[in-house]
Amino acid sequence: MIAAAAVLSVLAALAVVKTFEQRIPPVAVRIGLLVFVLGPLAGMVYAMWALWQWALHPIDLLLLVVFAVVTGLGTSFGYHRLLTHRSFQTTPWITGMALAAGAMAVPSRPIDWAARHLEHHAHADREGDPHSPLDGLLHAHVGWMFGVSAAKRERYCRRLMRDPVVMFIERTALVWLALGLAVPALIDGWRGLLWGGIVRMAIHNHAMFGVNSICHAFGSQPFATGDESRNNRLIAVLAFGEGWHNNHHAFPAMAYHGMGSRPDATGLVIRWLERAGLAWDVHRPDPAAVARRRTRAITGSTRHQPRRSRS
C-alpha cells in the first residue's frame, strides 16, 4: 500500500494545483499538468508490463470497466450535455451524481470545464479557440492546457455560479477526484488503483482529448458548420458518443449526438431517463433545420476556410 499511497499523494497534489491554479506560480501549474498527462500514461505502460507477469484478475477488469463508465458518463452526460449545453433537464440528485462523476474523471472544476468548452464553440478553429488543430495536432490534443490561462467563468458561466448543486460540486471537486482513485484502491489495493484509477484515467484522458484533436482533423463533415469539426466513429465509441463532433457543432444543444442509429452511449442514457420520467426538455433539432444544414454541406455554399492569426 506504500506505492498506492505515494501515487494518491501525487495525484492529490495535482488536484490541488488545478483547484488553486490562479494562486500558484505558472511553472507549478505546468508541472502539475505534466503529471496529469504523463502519470496515467506511465501507469498504463506499467500495467501492460504487469500483464506479462500475472493474469488480469476479474476484479481488476471489473473495476476498470465500472469506473471508466461512471467517469466517462460523468464527463459526457454531466459536464458536457447537462451542465454546459443544457441539452436536457433532470432532477437535482441526478445532476449532483453526474457532476460528481465528472469531477472524478479529471482535475477540473465543472464551471472551468464548461467555460473553456463554450469558449471553444464561440471561436471554433478561429482566433480565440483554446484548442484547434490549426495550431498543431499536439497542441489541440494536450498542449493547449499548458497555456495556464484562466477560464472565463464570468463571461460564459455566470448562470452556473448561482446554482447550489453545481457550486457544491465546484467546492468539493478535489474530494471527488480523490474518491475516484481511493475507492478502487480500497477495494483491491495497488491493483485496484492501477486498473480502476490510473489506467482508467489514461484511457479517459486520451479519448476525450481526441475529441479536440482527432475530431477536428479526421472524419466526415455531413453538416456545414464553418469550422473543421468532424464525425469520427472510433472516438464516438471510446468517448461515449462525443466523437459525433460535427453533428454536435451543427446543433450544440442537441442531446443525441449520434442522430439516429450511430453509437452514442450518453444519448442512450438520456433516452432511458426520459422514458422513466427522470429527464425532460430533451433538445432535438428541427428536421427541416437538419435538412438545410445537410444541403449546405453538400453544395458547399457556406463553407469557408477558417483563418487564424495567433502570434
Low-confidence stretches: 301-311
Name the helicity range.
Answer: 55-70%
- Overall average pLDDT: 83
Count of discrete domains = 1
Number of strands: 2
Q: Structural class, judged by helices and strands?
A: mainly alpha
For the largest sheet, list the strands in their spatial order.
1-2
Q: Give the helices and strands as they follow along the chain.
A: HHHEHHHHHHHHHEH
Q: Compute the gyration radius: what is it?
A: 19 Å
* Largest sheet composition: 2 strands, antiparallel
N-to-C terminal Cα separation, in Å? 48 Å
Number of helices: 13
The shape is globular
Q: Strand content of the residues, in percent?
A: under 5%
Tag the structure with descriptive keywords:
311 residues, mainly alpha, two-stranded antiparallel sheet, 62% helix, globular, disordered C terminus
